[in-house]
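Lab notebook, page 48
Experiment: co-folding of the full assembly
Goal: obtain a model of how the components sit together before planning crosslinking
Operator: M.T.
Materials (sequences as entered):
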Amino acid sequence: MTMADVDRLLHDFIEADRDAPADPMPYLERLEGVDRAELEALIDGYLARAPRRPFDAAAFERSPARAVAEDLGRSLGGVSGTWPALLPRLRHRARLRRSDVVQRLAEELHAETGQVEKVARYYHGMEQGALPSALVSDRVLEALGRVLGVPADRLRRAGKDLGGGVAGPAESGAFARVGSPDPAHVDPGTLMPGPAGSDDEPPDEIDSLFTGLG
Amino acid sequence: LLENSVQKSLPQFRPLDEAGLQRLDDDALIDYIRRARAAGHPSARPALAILVFGRMDSIERRVRLKVPEHEVEDLAADILVEAITSSFDGRSVGEFTSWLNTITGRAIADFYRRGRGRALPEPASGADPVTASEEGEVDTRDVIERLMAPLRPDHRRVIDIMVFENGTAADAVRAVPGMTEGNAHQIVSRFRRALRDELGDGGDTASG
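Observation: model returned without errors.
Model output:
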């Protein structure tokens, strides 16, 4: 193989990519050594400069891009910073279901059996962008950090709001359909003391840990 | 009265349909999302979808060149989330495309520095993340960018056209004032020799 072979394969890759996203691997597998490294670097350089792929609604629905856009939408439209994008990924990396995280978080917070559902509701609010991150206590973030395997300060920084000021109805309206959060869980009103349980139920320590109230 | 005067002083938000959004470049699209978000307009959602969908594929393929297949989708998603959110909280630097490339290079380097897939990459700061790290590791910019950075803008444009856009020397001459076909061929030839020298000397070619 020669530089000319590298040139030809790069040319063929770029031409193929103009019709539909081309897989670099079959092109790279035809070379070895410095030739392969050179083609890899050139393809990487090409991809770094490639124009944005035109939107295709059907392909988007089948693409991993959809989940990313939903996570981002919940982050940009919510009041929890980038938690909606970060927490599900950390959970996935830790190979934990949401119910596992809730159970462990409840244990870390010494929640009683009857308070686990409340922890679940608050944690769901964190993933959905509905729980104001500034109100969540360090103790919750330290506990959650132990469950998910990240430092609490990483979670705190991720919870900072995006773009100045707490998102209001306008922001959440802009992304309202992204992610289609379960209204039974994400209405901020249901996350606060009193309304979280019943009108007769005073806020308890769990409410205080997640909302600063109680 | 004060409220009215404030509203008049703000640039009016004009919603775009999907075709209009597609015509925006990345930076304009991000600006649109920011304004649609502030206005509570639902077109923020398709605008975000256009940006994510349009960039995901190239990022995935770039990541696939460097990391194991089963890690590709997660790392590519991490990169996009980090690049886009940092564009909203003031941590990004420069044009979105350049910033996305910076985040990509750094995320791949982090992936190996921390041990494969052990945690998500740390959030990027506004500082230039492509210089030597505290651990003494080499510049994480890909080799192409390292070689092109010191070149004159017109020479970089010639390389872009003839190497990365499948253009000819005649195309380069048409696009770059004062360029000749002979000079264009020389510029590309020097670039390619430098690339092979860099790679032959054990440059940044690690593959997963």
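Interpretation: Chain B has a mean pLDDT of 83.
Next step: discuss with group before ordering constructs.
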